[in-house]
Design brief:
Radius of gyration: 20 Å
Number of helices: 10
Largest sheet: none
Distance between the termini: 64 Å
Shape: elongated
Length: about 200
């Protein structure tokens, strides 16, 4: 690998062992086996390097999740089965990749104090919304068009963020995939959609 790839690998290793806030320039350079000046040369800043390493890790996670969902879902499975399979894989990853998900929370805190981190994280979130919407709709990301698709990705991203905190802090009481699907159907009923089986529709105000 070249210095750039070594630095990305070193940054990822430091995110795993030290987290976002405690991974210093010297830590990353030492893990990468290069001079710390190479960080500025290749990425401009520690924050930009960490964001790129984190984004690559999330992209790899997304590809693994999609493949796992496809493998676990039988041909002809309905929308709910596919959706629950997605969440089953996500929830499993909260434990298996705890360090990666903790890094997302740390990055959000750092964004409050660093305009550069905020800018980079905002771009990553926009990409995340788009990718999630495309995955839910089963279409190519570059074919998305219109506010409905953007809203779908935004809601899915919000669910992932909220569920992440519950699973990190109180996994014994965090919702499983069926709870998530049931909750969404319940919300749809409250908003005027089809109610949950066995539940009456909400009364008009």
């Amino acid at each position: 690998m070249g210095n750039r790839e070594d630095l990305l690998a070193g940054a990822l290793a430091c995110l795993k062992t030290k987290g976002w806030a405690r991974a210093t320039v010297r830590d990353i350079a030492a893990a990468a086996g290069v001079n710390h000046a190479a960080i500025g040369y290749h990425f401009g800043s520690r924050e930009a390097l960490l964001i790129e390493a984190f984004t690559q890790a999330m992209d790899a996670w997304g590809a693994e999740t999609e493949a796992a969902v496809q493998a676990a879902t039988a041909a002809g499975a309905g929308p709910r089965e596919r959706y629950e399979a997605f969440w089953r894989q996500v929830i499993a990853s909260y434990a298996a990749n705890r360090w990666l998900w903790l890094a997302t929370i740390e990055a959000a805190v750092q964004a409050e104090h660093s305009p550069k981190v905020r800018e980079l994280m905002a771009a990553s979130m926009r990409q995340g919304r788009s990718g999630l919407a495309a995955g839910l709709l089963g279409v190519a990301e570059d074919t998305l068009d219109g506010p409905a698709e953007r809203a779908l990705g935004s809601v899915q991203l919000a669910l992932m963020s909220g569920l992440l905190v519950q699973w990190l802090i109180d996994p014994g009481h965090a919702p499983a995939e069926r709870d998530i699907a049931d909750g969404l159907l319940g919300l749809a009923g409250l908003l005027g959609g089809a109610p949950l089986p066995g539940n009456p529709p909400p009364s008009a105000a």
